[in-house]
Amino acid sequence: MLAKRIIPCLDIKDGRTVKGVNFVELRDAGDPVELAKRYVLEGADELVFLDITATHEQRKTLVELVQRIAHAINIPFTVGGGIKSVADVSALLEAGADKVSVNSAAVRRPLLVNELAKEFGSQCIVVAIDAKAEKGDWFVYLNGGRLATDIQALGWSKEVEERGAGEILLTSMDHDGSKKGFAIGLTKAVSSQLHIPVIASGGAGEMAHFTAIFKEGKADAALAASIFHFGEIPIPVLKSYLNDHKIAVRI
Predict the structure, then answer these.
(1) In angstroms, what is the C-alpha Rg of the chain?
(2) Is 14 a residue of the active site?
(3) Catalytic: which of 45, 51, 130, 176?
């Protein structure tokens, strides 16, 4: 059995790590380079860096900051925010990213996923899906959760897999920052129809939430931010707990 992964997420705004609730009410969570170093020492399996205002502000990801973080860590590093082209991905991989996460640009031009997978290989192409529950279904949102679409999250996840995505980063906007648990139904629905890994994101508040998303939600990895940033759940303690609950993790 493949080990389940625990992934801290650095949401970046103006060069600082921030965290909000339901994608708003952002508060400062510290220096991203120092947090990244801490997570390596604590045993995080990977690290995700999301420049959360790059698309909305119509600019590229903060490459210099990506370089500084990449230089400070030795675990897989995924970077997202404002990525629109093969050239954007090249710049981030050269800066030290191992994988890139695309979201809004892929929805606007789905062929981008094919192009990136062909150029760089599916193993480094993550498609992020920000989903919100409406009218009995889950719909995709763009621009850091600011822009609604009529695209169904389940159908979109299947399409990007077929186009060459190697992984899905699935965030429930309704659960984001709530600390009430991950979106188990959504995650299970997506995981059950795909053959690529699904990272669950949004809602982690206690260790039992991770057990639930792995066992019931069928997630391959779980991503969280504030509970790690503010020391509410240390990663070594979480991994020990998961191990005790018969969930394979790298300790």
Answers:
(1) 16
(2) no
(3) 130
